[in-house]
Amino acid sequence: MLARNLPWLTMSKLKRREAVAGYVFILPWLISLLVFTLYPIITTLYLSFTNYTVVQPPVWVGLENYQTIFFNDPSIKPSVYNSVYYTLLSVPVGLILSLLLALVLNMRATGIGVYRTLFYLPSLVPPVAATIVFTVLFEARSGLINSFIRSFGLPAPAWFADPNWSKPGLVIMSLWGIGAQTLIFLAGLQDIPKSLLEAAEIDGANGAQKLWYITLPLLSNVILFNLVMNVIGSFQVFTQAVVIGGTTGNPMESTLMFMVHIYRNAFRYFKMGYASALSVLLFVVVMVVTLLIFRSARLWVFAEKDENA
Amino acid sequence: MASYPQSRRNPVSRRNFLRLAGMAGGGALLASCAPKATPTQKPTEPAVEAAPTEPPPAQEKLSLSFWTPGGSDVFCKGFGTIAEEYEKLTPNIDIGEAQCNPSGENFNEMLMANIAAATPPDTTIIWTSPAAFAARGALEALDDLMAVSKYSQLENWPAGVLASCQYRGKTYGLPATAGTYAIFYNQEMFEAKGIPSDRESFPKTWDEMRRLSKEFVKWDGDVLQSAGYIPWGIPGDTFSSAVEFAFWSAVNGSQLFDAKNLKYTIDSEQNIYTMQYALDWWDEQYKGDLTKVRTSANWGGYSDGEGRPPAFQENKLAMQTNGYWFTTDMYAVEMKFERWDVASVPVGPNGKKTASGYWPNWLVIPKGTKHVTEAFAYLDYMTVDGIKIWYNNIPDLPANKKTDPNLVPKTVVEKRGQELAASINTFFHQQLDVATPMWDSPVQDFFLDQLSRAIEQILGRAASPKDALGEAQKACQAELDKVLSS
After folding, report:
1. pLDDT band at B290 (very low <50, low <70, confident <90, very high)
2. Distance between CA atoms of residues B477 and A267, nearest Å
3. CATH 3.40.50.720 fits domain A74-300
4. Is 0.95 exceeded by the ipTM?
5. Residue B135 belongs to a domain with what CATH number?
6. Closest chain A residue to B307 measured between Cα atoms?
7. CA dist B327 to B5, B228, B341, B413, Å?
8. Tens of pLDDT along B23-79?
9. Which residue of chain A has the CA closest to B459?
10. Which of residues 168-227 of A touch B (CB under 8 A)?
């Protein structure tokens, strides 16, 4: 019984030595996990119950920071609204466009490799540089995008100068980096057995039917992966928002994302305790949403059944 | 022959080598995470008997570090010249090269991190209120050193300006320069409409100024071609508006923060009226539409991020509030007119007298600095002697009463002549005497963000002045109470 619970005791000398060597090899990773991931997470949780201004030691304040979040922070509502708005809009739009792009790039055509590279390249551009370029493109009066819209005689929005258009502007900007998830979709598409598509074709299925009944179900695992990653990424959108709207979320807090609010409290007001509480809240929300997505995956993610099981 | 395991026969077997290498790597990683040795030398206690410009002789040459949060190349290099001059007077002191914004934009973050890590600079300029830094325990109190200094006694500073450095009865900084605010106006635009352009004829009340503003407002469809005055501040730059709101509140008989009683008064009746007045002005002259005004032109005094030239210099904005620094800065872009002047801020219906605001360069000594006395001596020198070099490079308005009152910005002399330059300079110095206390809250950054949020909501019609200012009041007071109780 003891030996079953403690296999270490029954191991041969050689096996034990091999196990030690294994642990030694993973030690650098293990240490970095403990020091740079687990320790900050636990510290953040602890600091969320304190008042900590960096220079002086943290002072325990119990649930005060959480009370402030729910009852006394006027910027919570707009920052939550902005982040949810951005997530609800950017995730589906990004997924659909990247999937369509992957379908196009999956075709056999001359120079398709070049196109694949070209579509992936934008995701390598540093976000700050890309955002600055987009602010010029979206400039209300003489920006390229508004000049194009006006050439059709249509009214052009003020984009990042107008609180009603700044978030759609950010969503459009987020599409600049869909190359990475397109590549993941493309890998998934290339994993789909050709025999299934050919069989469907023989049975008389048209393109749309093949997409709906074969491609999408077999790609559902990849869709799930991209969905989860996109939702997490969208809740954590920061760079684009802070470059465009600063820490106050100009115009009219319309670009004040939750992450910007955390950053502002941590590094502008030096309220590390409160910022930690906000981070814990974000962590919990993202975790719950992710779990809900995984739960819902049972209904829509195709899993091949093992007939012999 | 006995058979020995491989490892016994060859002590540096591949397996052993890898095991040792792994352990060594892990050990090195752990060692790199260990805290660095704590300096055993205690920070020098402030020595009140030391004469600041004659620091106590040291056996070895003492090095002092100096930071600034940023500024132009000329601004930064100027500190090298000041340091050289100071080193001639005090051969035992070596002032290191000024670290001009060593961390990009996040200066406060870097400064706080260095204070927390016990590696602060000996002296630094800050552009955030010393009261706010002091409330976090990040600065050295300077009162004892100021009392025995050559230049920096309390009475040598304008009271309203010094208030920004004080927290709970102690002084934590020197407001070396404090550019005051005024209304800049384009005399040529006035004269083109037959309006007297001398300083004395400038409107004295809000109603007069609003009527005058209307003369210059010209729309072409939804594009604002020219404007008179846009209340209160630069549309879209809510942070500046929040800063400037302090003196608009003061000229209407109110204030935003009562430092004596540590109470915010953001939503006072007068302040609500001040914002309602701005709204009515916007409705009357600017279609009540912040977005249309913002997209029509750049209404600030500097080229904006979109490369648009500033409307004032373009002859499209008749009046704007700005600080002393603008007397020189306005020439950084092409001026489409020559003649301008400055006037006092007009008085609101509930106010009795004019007021001004100010924006200083604060000199402070971070907590944990090892050479407080020597560092203060350098700062004391800089406020009066060094400021001449500083002023020659960047004409910031010196605040210490012992500075040479005849310092006049070279650019203004070149562009407008000695007489007018001197008159403008005297005017801005007088503005120091009517400067309303500001920058004196321990939660200054939080307060400015809340106020700019409220102003934006009001002008964007997302909330009434009463509700928006009320919300800012509630949040700021709660934040202040939290800081005071901690």
Report:
1. confident
2. 21
3. no
4. no
5. 3.40.190.10
6. A136
7. 87, 19, 9, 10
8. 565 555 555 444 444 443 444 444 333 444 555 555 578 999 999 998 778 888 889
9. A252
10. none
